[in-house]
Amino acid sequence: MIPDVNISGYAVLGSGGALNNSNPIYTWKDDFSWNRGRHSLKFGAEMINHRKGEISYSNEQGSFNFNGGGTGNGFADFLIGRAFDYTETDKDPGVEVGQWDNEFYVQDDIKVSSQLTLNAGIRYYLISGSNGGRASNDKISAFVPWLYDPAKAPRQLSDGQLVPGTGDPLNGFIMGTDRRGLPIGPQLMKTNKDVFGPRVGFAYNLLSKTVIRGGYGINYFWGTANNVGRHLNPPFIGSVDIVNTTLSNPTGGVGRVFPPSVNSLDIYNRQPSVQSWSFTIQREIVANTSLEIGYAGTRGTHLPRGIQLNQANPASTVNANLRRPYLGYGTISYNENSAVSKYHGLEMSFVRRFTSGLMLECSYTFSKGLGHPEGNPLDSRNKDLDFGLLTLDRPHMFTLNYVWEFPVFKNRKDALAKVFGGWQLSGIASSQSGLPINITQAGDVANFGGGTGGQRPDIVGDPNQGRGQSLSRYFNTDAFRAVTGTGRIGTSPFNPIHGPGVFNFDMSLYKVIRFTEKMRLQTGIETFNTFNHPQFEAVGSQLATATYGMVTDARDPRVIQLRAKISF
Q: DSSP of 491-530, one letter per residue?
């Protein structure tokens, strides 16, 4: 097979990795309720057995990475045949892993008075194996940093290759069948047994037409520390990570051995959790019409993310594999639950229930979401450098949906009513801010040896100046300047600007024809992006590329379709 070619700023050339996947999930769930006096008690349990079998054939063909580290442009590096690194995996023998998620809960709804209702409950989580669990044949392994012994590191030559017969090839590793005395199971991670999620809430009828509601709760989940990839670690297969090599001869000869890439996790990970709270006031304005305003917030802690554990020391200029903290290994992709997130939102809604042929719902949210990205941070030794706007942050969101039955000939049953009556207009209108854009530059100017998040330039101006006024220059591209000095991180924050927003109308026009009391025909027309309003997305965000600052894609244009449905 021909190796993949990954050029920074361009689509990957190559076959990628085929996937043979099975993912059965078995669930047992039961809920009970008991009403007594002012109490409405609910309790139950849910048990989920999640299994996953996979053969991914990942990177068996090898992969070249041209990131602009030589010339400052990835394509130029490709033309001269200078690759930042070359990686390859020996084989993928396949793996099947399994884990359990057991949850038990109890909740009491208490009718304190005709005006006040209280809610209180708790849920207990017993999640064994996180997301990935134990391998059925115990052929998975993990690298544990504090078990690594520098005295057992292999000798390495100036180009990073290993000297055969030196060092311990399993230095710092544990396996399903050899856990080095650590208090963990064969799933290679500790099971947290102190995971309780309380929740409380209330509803208070302040006045005859005004209700105040509030609540707080903690929810846990099993995260993304998947053990599927850990069967590709030593000693089960071989892999290489060759830094600063050539396209024509990546290994530089025959019989040369280079450090393997490793996939591992924090075996003592805390359970990921999200705290949620809200407070709302709802007022009935007129009959069947209400207005609601409220505040909602969330805080995520111990959220999953990846880091590059074996990040090279940027103060040196020798081969990256010679300046890593865990010599003898290449990049170490390491899953840990250390990210946090914050969300605060002002929420307003107007609702008119279906009355006199008209239903109307309108909502607006003004919010801000901050946190760490789920992917690898730029600097694994200073992870907070990537704390910024969440990838899904949309400051403004407005939605309007409606249904209107035409009153014409509504109460008539003659021929005119059959032709001109029974029409219904409905639709959804939405306006949303765009998603954040992270500005990056090619190359490893931070000198971290690869495997980190996108490297960022310096910010030297206001990127929002003139934003959205041109498709070829959506934001102020001059506000960013490439870092040229090796070993330095740019000053641009993570996700510094927002991309194009959404302004869309979807509308439908239907006619209902009744044949009998139980049979009717609904026929009409549906339109999506009714007014064919241009809606752009995907702005080029990498410096020194042909598409930098340009809008490169758009959402669908107007779509019209006819529809008929018989109900009986």
A: SPPSS-EE---EEEEEEEEEEEEESSSS-EEEEEEEEEST
